[in-house]
Amino acid sequence: MNTNTSKKSHSKAAQQVFRQDQRKLLVSLVLLAVFVLVLGQSAVSWFSLDGFERELEPQLHQKASAVGHALSDQLSYATGELAIPANELVGMNEYFQSVLANNDDIKYLTLIDTDGEVLFVSGVSRDELDTILQNLAMREIEQEQFGHAMDEYIVGVFTVQGAQQDDSVLHVGVSSNRIRSHLREVFWEIITIVIICWLVTFEFLLFFSVARVEKPMETILRAMSEGARGKFSSWLLVRSSDEIGQLTSSFNRTLQNLRHRYNDFVFDVRETQNAQIQGEIANKISDVHKNIDSRYRFERGEALQVKAPDRIRVPLFLFIFSEELSRSFLPLFVQRYAPTDLMVSSEFLIGLPITLFMVAAMIATPLGGGFVDRVGVRRVFMVGIAAAVVGFIGNFYTQSYYDLVAYRILTGIGYGLVFIASEGWVTQNAKRFSRASATGVFVAAVFAGIICGPPIGGIFADRFGFEATFLLSAALATVSGLIIYQVFRVSNLQPEKPKSNSTRPALILGAKGWLTLLKDIRFVSVLLFAAIPGKMMVAGFIAYLVPLYLNELGHNQSSIGRILMLYGILTLICLTFAARYADRTEKYGTMVALGTAIAGFGCIGAYFSNLFGDASYAVALAICSLGVGHALTLTSQNSIIQQVAQRYEHTLGRASVVGAYRLCERLGMVFGPLIAVALISGFGYQGAIVGFGVILVGLISLFVLTNLSAMRQGEESEMGLTNE
Amino acid sequence: MNKQVTLSRVVIALLLLIGLLTVRANVLAQDSVAGTSRPFEIFAVVWRGETEVEDGFRDYLNQRGIPYNMTIRSLDLDRSNAPPIVEEIRQAKPDLVYTWGTGTTLSIVGPLAAEEPDRFVQGIPGIFVLVAYPISAKIVDSFESTGRAITGVSFLASIDSQLRTILDYGEFKKIAVIYDATSRNSRINVESLENAAPQFGIDLVVLPVPLGDNDKPDPDTLPDLITQAKSQGADILYMGPDSFLTRHAKIYTTAAIAAGLPTFASTQAPLIGSRAMFGLVSDYHTLGKLAAVQAEKILIDKEKPENLPVASLSRFKLWINIDVVREIKMYPPMNMIAIADFKTTASN
Prior knowledge:
The complex is a heterodimer. By secondary structure, chain A is an alpha+beta fold. In chain A, 75% of the residues lie in helices and 6% in strands. Chain A has a six-stranded antiparallel β-sheet, with helices on both faces. In chain A, strands 7-8 form a two-stranded parallel ribbon. In chain A, helix 12 (435-464) runs antiparallel to helix 16. In chain B, helix 2 (52-63) packs across helix 11 and helix 7 runs parallel beside helix 9. Chain B is α/β, with parallel strands linked by helices. Chains A and B meet through helix 1 and helix 2 of A and helix 12 and helix 13 of B.
């Protein structure tokens, strides 16, 4: 017995060591691939940007030259051929303005007579022009006169011929700033795409390496460690024909041959035993046989399956990605169709589709739970994705506000179903993995989608329009559906009957259960003061207010998407550290308070927009603080709820409590846009951001007050863990 | 083997036959495009000698390779010269009658539902050019459907675009229209101006030319009328499609320049023959080509003239007489210089 356990622990340790080595190999492979990608992309981006910069000046010269020649020809015609004195030219302002309107890069135009007196100028004020003229340094490029002034202006100088030796001079001032800002835009787009490429590459590499290499290897290792304990009865269910698949089937053959040989051996032993006349020897042989049977087991037993919650990581990522594509422009898209002849404000009509989307998702979630129990995870996935795809395609063909809303609701139902299916999948597959790591997979996929969606969607929408982006969403969601179909086919999973109604706990809680929970101060305070406000910010601020406000501030879709991306990136970066810190210190309550306060004060910072120069920076700051804040609170909220649930493990059931919490939390998403509408119509965009901040800070103060005593006493006792 | 040879011969023979037929068909088709060997007979009647319109008309027909003979007669500014020409046309039985100007058209093909149809050419397709107001002159029912075997081309820019051009040139507030009240064309034109001017925020000074002893407008009153316009605050003169004014354009424009008033012309003649400052006019050569396109439809495509809408040009020429501009010192704005055609009085 003793030796047995030591053996067991020994083999387990060996497996652990092996696993870590194996992990190392995979991680370094993925890292290497991403590193090479980064290197290549950085080089290409750098060269192309460098190329832009080098091309910039000659291009500016060319531009000034082309416009200058055309203008000086026309002016020479007027002053020379038609002999109109240069200072008596009519409509010069309109003439210059129309040229400036058609040529973005040209900053100003001016006509100066022989004595150096400025006759006409457009684009800059007289004073600005005087400064430029004072700093003008002339040089000749390709037989044309060019002036340079103040690092910014490249000025083409052209002679306008007069009728009697009274030539005047035309200056075409090109500003490099305008083009530089275009370049900056391109630079940011390149950076965005590079970051997203890394993320996507990382996601896919990890997906393939985990699904195709790591998990099968792990299964083989399990079989081998069983073999080390003398158990040769297991066999492996792996259906791929790649290298790992070949290894697996060869391993299966080895086990099969071993079984045959053992059976032959047993047959021989029996023969020998039966052939013995002396009972004593026969008994000895029988003992040995029994002994061998107890030490080694050869009969074919159950198949070892590859179980990996990681497998839905990529399809889930793609699905979230597809939904997030429209994040940067959805309110603006709705604005286009919002009817103006109704009694309600247009802000409300713009917010309504977002709210109804959340309501649809919220209702679909518990209903989908029952659905999962009846028809299985796979079908719910398929139905959910199909609904979302139809919704996206419907939005592509949007004709009116009402069908826009209808298709958003359909997508919302799909969204809810996919979520509940994912949760079901995690529950079903998390037996061998800790639930935490399974949830981690979930969160990672969601945040990768939240990061990639808005900027890519924005870039796409800028170039191909809003509607086309919905088509891209439909395509991505379809791909996600195909991968999920494939995953289920390969792993040959039967719809498992869950032992408990794990996926729809909230519904079976009952009135009494709800009442118990609502009396629990800790549960209610986390829910009301941290969880619901958090979701409110996601739906009301990120999804509704930010796109509208940034659009009003003059940002294009790519830029809005990029700024929105900050939220996902910061959350993802801080999440790991925050989770680790929270688990070490176990100060979950403090973390929740701190995170929400950071988000709140970040929003209040918008009050001082003027200090930033550009209000967009205030928005970006609010988004960043929200990202950091959510990273701090998310895991800690989860831990608190798990602990609360533990208290009711025997009365209400752990899963029911968590389910109830998740359901209530989503109320924040439903009310978020409505609160935003109210704040915006009361205080304008900037005031609404501050308002959100005040709400967050106010609520979290209540949280601190209600939990103060507990927090002071230290978190362990606060949880009441010691009492249980 | 043998069978195959025979088969291929048959196929080749068939191909040759098809080839020959195709060539023949092409020849036939070409014949029908260019008409029969007989050239089309076109009978043109003009008002005061040939103009660039007829050049453009011929140029187009020549370019298209349409065979035609064109007979040209002139009324020499007198409608009483019409009857013998009408008789000549009846004898010649041409394929198409071409008429230049409102007076000519009314004298040769007559108005719609004429009281004495026998006085006019009938039953022969007609095309008119240089008719300012064909509907008001009762030549056609409407531009879309002419209501008789006649169609044509209109040549005036719309009143709106004329007024817009005037305002583009300068900040004019009050336009004086001196016109021959005995001419229907001129009366119609003044009416349209009176309708349109308020939308552009322009005031009108309308001055009919007084009649002389012979009950005809008296050209000697023109300088006085211009002084009168000036004293009433007009800052620009408008010259519509008015043959009386066109005839006396030199006196008119000289008096205008002396008074320091620019003249806008809606037809080409005052710009070429006198010293109007600027105008929005159709190019006569292009106009002739457009008329020839109508003629092609009637002669080659055998379309009925009554089904052909009256065609109009989509582009007009902005003519500016730079000599007059310099004399009055009223320079056109730069945006207009870029698109205008400049003329000088000397080159006329």
